[in-house]
Predict the 3D structure of the following.
Amino acid sequence: MSEISNPLSSTASVLIDKAKTVTANYVLQHKIVFGQSGAYELPHPDTILAIDGVNYDVGKLPASFWYDNGSDHTFYYEKSLVVTANKKAYVWTSTTGLSTAQSESITVSSSGNITGNYKTQYYLTVTSTHGTPNPSSGWIDSGTSIAASIDSPISGPTGTLYVCAGWRGKGSVPTSGSNTSTTFQLNTPSTLAWNWNTQYYLTVSSDPLGLINVPAEGWCDQSANVTLTAPAVTDYDFDHWTIDGASQGKGADPVVVTMSAAHTATAHYVRVSPTLQSCDSSGIEKNAFDLRQGEAVYVKGSGFSPSTTHTIHVVNTVVWVEGMDIPPRIANTSTTVMSDSSGKIGQTAVWDAPLTLGDYDIIVDVNMNGKYDQGIDVLDVEQNAFSVIPEFSMSLSLLMLMLAVLLSASCVKRTKTLRRA
Ligand SMILES: [Ca+2]
Ligand SMILES: [Ca+2]
């Protein structure tokens, strides 16, 4: 009817001047209610939902609309809403009601609800100067049980080691701990900081190599002061320490190494001159062997090359001259003696009874060239290594001495008599 100025308005003016028919036309509409659950913090300035291109924040929900039956409408729920950067967020999990989609275009055919459901996530900040923490920083669902850990130790540059010294925590993470793992349930924004110590390797060796075993060798905490004491070594004298090649002074022991970096400490030793002695079967030095007691001649020594068979000669005593041939061995004397792992020659029989009266020398021909080499070969510490003497020789000597005294006394008497004459 041309008389109705706005046919889409529910009110109209009609002049009743004759019989007229006015028809009001209705359409079927459905009420759709858009809402959300789980995104609690209100109001929220960010858009959570777009309906037909119009944005709605959390404070504007739920929002109701009457839609014509059969009309099409679009909606879009935001996937993630960050409440506070790196602290708290809401994440879309599902849509319930007339749709299950996060975003959809629907054709309206009934009334109902469309609800976007959200879960809360918190940000776990994980820091570590070394290694690969598990988990690393990231968003984690509220209420998640977390077993956090880190591998330790971690190798650094040569001679450097990083050792986890535990953690400090804030929020849901325990305040602190000293090991490499912790468990907690995440219910708030949290931080987990792994702490590390640096260690440096201290190498302790000896010169000659392998002479000592110093327990201080190993990884040391940064800046630790390590005291090194040179152990006593059989047949060697300690001389000095070097640290990274620099001498710490002759005889200086113990020394302290500050572990500001990896270091190498070396204890330098000087070999003690080897010695050789005639002795009895108990190893007691003996330089006179009694012919008639059936004694055997033993030798003992120290300072020789360890675990070595050495050539030995028992010879008639001579004046030793550099480079001279070693005199022939006495018959039935040993040709070799053995040193043990520390260079010692334990008492070893070199001449079994019967012995022969005389004065003898003993020499170890260290370089086995059959010649006497001063400073290389080793002679018995005595000028005459040992003597083989007859039984009662001491009383015989005493008798000789007394005779000599008597004789000289008579000589003096005779001299005095002559002067008087
Ligand atoms: Ca020699
Ligand atoms: Ca001797």
In short: The chain is about 5% helix and 45% strand.
